[in-house]
Every structure is written in C-alpha cells, then in structure tokens.
Amino acid sequence: MKIIINCDDLGESTFINDRILDLMEAGRVTSATLLMNGPAVDDAVRRIGRYPHMSFGVHLNVTQFRPLCSHPGLAPLLNEEGEFEGREKYGGKLRRMRLTTRIAEGIFAEWSAQIERALALRIPVSHLDSHHFTHKIPSLFRVFKRVQKKYGISKIRITENVFGVHKIVSPMRRAAGLALNFAFRHYVQTKTTDGFCEFSTFHERLLAGLGWHGSIELMCHPGSNREEYSYDAALLYGNWREELAKDAKLISYNEL
After folding, report:
1. Would you call 23 exposed, middle or buried from its count of C-beta atoms within 10 A (0-12, 13-18, 19+)?
2. What domains are there in the chain, each with its CATH number?
3. Which of 135, 208, 242, 248 is a good FRET partner for 40, with 20 to 30 A between their CA atoms?
4. pLDDT digits (tens, 9 = 90+) for 53-77
5. Helix, strand, or coil here: 120?
6. Do residues 250 and 5 make contact, with C-beta atoms less than 8 angstroms apart?
7. CA 96 to CA 187: how far, in whole Å?
C-alpha cells in the first residue's frame, strides 16, 4: 500500500501555510498543492524549498480570490470587486452556469497563468488538482486536459472512488466516477493513484479493518475552519500508521 497525503490550499493564508508546513516538518504529510492566486502564496513559495522530498502541485482555482489574468471570458465568474465569486459553497455558481466557449477560454487562460506563475517561481510542479474540485466538472474536462497537455504535467488527482464505511453511494454515481477516472487516465496520457478520498474516510476504513491494495491519495486541509477538516488534522498527528497501517509506505507524487 502506497499512500500520498496531500494538503490542499497552500498559499491561502499564512495560518494555513504554517499548519501544512508543520505537518511536513513532522513527516506526517508528503505533498501539497498551491493556490497560485492565493494571498499568502509568496510566503509559501519562500518556505517550501526546505522540503525537497515533498511534492508540490498546483491547486487550479477559478472560485476564489483575484484572477492572475484579465481574460474577458472570466467576467461572469467575478464579483463587483473583480474577484472570483467565493460566497457559494464549492463553486456552485460555476457548476450551474452554461459554459460558453468564451468562459472556457477564460478559464483556460487563468489556469495557464497559474501554472506559468508556478514555473516562473521555480516550483517543481509535480501534479494538478483544483480548488473546490472544479477540474471534475464534466464541462471543464477538455479545458483541464488542454492545460495538462500544454504544460506536460502527467500526474493529476482523480475523482473520489473510495467511500466511508457507512456512506451509501448509488450505482449511478459509482459508474460516473469510474467513467471520469478512466477518461482522466486515458485522454492525454496521465498517471494517477489507484484511489482517492479524504484522509478521515481512509482512517474510518482502516478502523473497520478495510485495507487497500495499490496507491491512494488522501486529501486533507490543515488550518481550515471547517469542522470535518480540523478533525483530519488531529488524526494526522495521531499514531494511525503505527496502529492501523504498519505495512504502508508514504510517498510523494514525485515517487508515483
């Protein structure tokens, strides 16, 4: 069993940066993705060089903070202050709107600008995922794959395919997830983990005696004010690996 523990939202605030980098220092996580338009991304970039054995990807973002580019196609996604509309949970506005060619080109330009900023800052970009899971929106699939192909980034996060012990998942949702993950892996040559879920979900499964064969990415959000994410952070500092997953190997995306 090979486990990547990835922290999302590096660069969102100095508080979140501190929490993520503290976990890296303690060897509790192996990877992080940066919000390249986040208010504290410069602070994060100054500090990540201390962790050469960790992997750092880009957390593509079109749902929060100010965009890096001024493409007119982004206008429907912005509020009166010129920032991505962040008041709706998980980018609900983007999920409901009809994606025109103009908006798609704006998102392509913005995601490209975010990766280019990472490369300009000499971040060794290991993989891609997205803020509020927007790369998993079906209408954005081709936009995401265009970005991936343009920059030759071969590793990405798949959609959730490992579920909690008591979570009821419909056959339709499972089938849709299988189809999306197949497309992620084969539309533009891509390497992914075998599984993906939140860290707390995986911990719950380990407690129930449900192991895992192969590779898996576990997502966490250290420093978040959401209750379920703060629970993740508490678990990460515990002895879960020694007690429940002795044979597991922690790896980064660089080792996938």
Report:
1. buried
2. 2-255 (3.20.20.370)
3. 135
4. 999 999 999 999 999 999 999 999 9
5. helix
6. yes
7. 25
Output the six-digit token pair for 255. Answer: 């080792």
CB-based contact 132:122 (threshold 8 Å): no
Closest CA to 132 of 54, 178, 77: 77
Angle in degrees, 0-180, between the axes of helices 227-236 and 199-207, rounded to the nearest 10? 60
Residue 225 pLDDT class (50, 70, 90 cuts): confident
- Half-sphere exposure of residue 129: CA atoms within 13 angstroms, side-chain side: 27
Three-state DSSP at 144 gives helix
pLDDT per position as a tens digit, 117-157: 999 999 999 999 999 999 999 999 999 999 999 999 999 99
Q: Using CA atoms, how far apart are residues 64 and 46, in angstroms rounded to an integer?
A: 22
Q: Which amino acid is at 86?
A: G
124 contact partners, CB below 8 Å, separation of at least 6: 56
